Fold:
Amino acid sequence: MSATKLERLLNLTALLLDTERPISAESIHDQIQSYPRELASFRRAFERDKDELRSMGIPVRVEKVPGTMPAIDGYRIPREEYALRDPGLDRDELAALHLAASAVQVEGLPATEGLLKLGGIVADPSGADLGVRIAPLPADPNLSVLFAAVAARTPVAFRYHGEERTVHPFRLEFQRGRWYLTGFDRLRDAERNYRLDRIEGLVELTDLESFIAPVATTLGQARGAWELGDDAPVRAVVRIDGPQARWVVQHVGPDHVVSRASGDASDDEVVVELPVTNRAALRSFVLSFLDHAELLEPAELRADLVAWLEQVS
Amino acid sequence: MTSRGEPSRPRLQRLLAMVPWIASHDGPTVTEVCERFGLTPAQLAADLEVVWLVGVPPYTPDALIDVVQEGDRVWIHYAEVFSEPNRLTPDQAVALLAAGASVLALPGGDTSGALATGVAKLAAVLGIDAAQVLDINLGGAGVEVLDLLRRAVRDQRRVHLDYYSFGRDARTQRDVDPYQVQVQDGSFYLLGHCHLAQAQRRFRVDRIAAATLLAESFDPPSEGTSGRVFEPDPDDPRVVLRLRPAARWVADVHPMESLEEQPDGSLVVTLAIAAEPWLERLLVSLGPDAEIVDGPRALRGAGGRAAARILARYR
Structure:
């Protein structure tokens, strides 16, 4: 970009931030001398500039210029919507955020832009290394809009499994290498979670009233694939034989163990009870043990599993 | 380096962040500004030249931003209009909070240090409770095992693993030279040279029942260790599978030796089978969505035999 265009964009931002009263395009043309003097060229340049500022998240608002008849469009950037309140990050905190952002990237979302606004890039003086190489978290076209909706508690609408859903988005989760949304589904009248990569098309923010999210108490735990779905909830009871028992307990979490055959020895069979909202994932999980596991309850899922196995050739 | 070729968006973003920062600090050094905002001194000089020309009406000298450079220090005055940077966009907020939450979610991570307080301050400005709105799990791994592996990678020490090999459905004991701990697709892995297999292997950390640090040290390989890990053994049997549309995903997650599209939307693929339990698992979990169309006689009925064994428990 030429220095002229950069100067023009900065002057436009300054002018629209400085004013409390919306300013007409004509007046902007008069005041910012670096715009082309010829009117049609000015119009084109001004349109491009507004788009450019908005694409960076700068809130350029269009309002009627007071006292004009017929009404004329005016522009301004409301400071209360523009300005970042200083979070007061100290050097160590900035360095820690920079280190984290260097180690973990979300595909397609550069963290540097955000860091610059927060006080710039500060290298960690200790040269610390996490000792773990973390693959970038996957991109999703709906990730940012859902984050904005979660933060503002705005109900959203999207298509999922062929149905239009209206959802109170409670939180975003990253589980098993994928993004999920957990929220209250107004169609199902219950809490559900949705795989972001299965949302059909783009999520829309609705103008429905904002909601109050319940406080989640079981965060910070890995969730099983059987918990991540949209099926009517059931509790499944699964028995797993000795040799696999140890890593199963680690995998599902000790809270889900309902009994162990004898004592605490690691090679005894275990019975686990699992909350299921994804029945296909539960079936795959149980079958991953081949004949070293058995789905005990509920009878309905057990019958489904038997019917499934009878189709294996 | 000239500033002419630099794309507009990053440069404008940087200036809108940098001007408030310099203005609110009492004469930071050129070096510090360059470090914080990722600039060369020449780029900074070019940026400051532009800032000189910016102001608000009536554009009299006292309404223009003033840049003062003295020695190696720089001041910006009369920049009230740019006294704060622009808010984070949702993209920028997600990128930073997800990174912070991921590192805090590493088993054994420091949840009271600078990163935790930094994330909390950032969340407060955004008006959210970070832990409630963004729950990140990189994968399951025991803190003790993971700590030991990270230490072993750092110190280049061999480890002994008590490992449940899922593919072979067997518990094994092996010595491994650990190259790297990785997080991918929701699991922790240890990449290293396995002395039992005499080759590079990747181990799921949550299937390591126990790990011990051995006395031997090793030299990590000089080239990158992130290359393809699984190379099928040329002597392994090959199986040809028909995958119905619902099972097409299998071709995205497992290496295929050949792949043919069928008119009905299914795929015919060739797979190297290193261990029979692996094939059995695949077939019973895919159910009616997959069938073996060719392969050694011994493997042809693998799915049906495994299903019959499992069904025996249900009758």
